[in-house]
Write a structure and sequence with these properties.
- The chain has three helices and two strands; from the N terminus they run E-E-H-H-H.
- With 96 residues, it is mainly alpha-helical.
- The chain folds into two domains: 2-39; 49-85, no CATH class.
- Strands 1-2 form a two-stranded antiparallel sheet.
- A hairpin with a 2-residue loop joins strand 1 (2-3) and strand 2.
- The longest helix has 25 residues, at 15-39.
- The chain is elongated, with a radius of gyration of 25 Å.
- The model has no long low-confidence stretch (mean pLDDT 77).
Length: 96
């Protein structure tokens, strides 16, 4: 059985040696995963709405937001309410 190209092995060693081996294997796994992600050309999207609105793909982000909102509405997990419909003891999200 292999895990990221490393065979399953049983070793007799001290705790210090084991910790050193684990650190080396962890570093190798991290390097391998970073390389694989790089080869897959993985890119992250904007981290905030303001970044999306300033990006060259702004139209795609707006379309994606509309699609997501439509999906939420079709699954009955999103409803839009007039803020004046809230009970007096409740506050709208983002309101003081």
């Amino acid at each position: 059985m292999e895990f990221y190209g490393f065979p399953k092995i049983t070793l007799a060693m001290s705790n210090v040696e084991a910790k050193a081996l684990i650190a080396d294997v962890g570093t190798e796994l991290t390097n391998q995963l970073e390389e694989e992600l790089g080869q897959a050309n993985v890119t992250l999207g904007p981290a905030a709405y303001s970044q999306a609105m300033k990006s060259e793909d702004v139209d795609k982000w707006i379309d994606a937001m509309h699609e997501e909102k439509s999906s939420l509405e079709s699954q009955s997990v999103w409803e839009v309410h007039d803020i004046t419909d809230l009970p007096k003891e409740r506050k709208g999200i983002g309101s003081c």
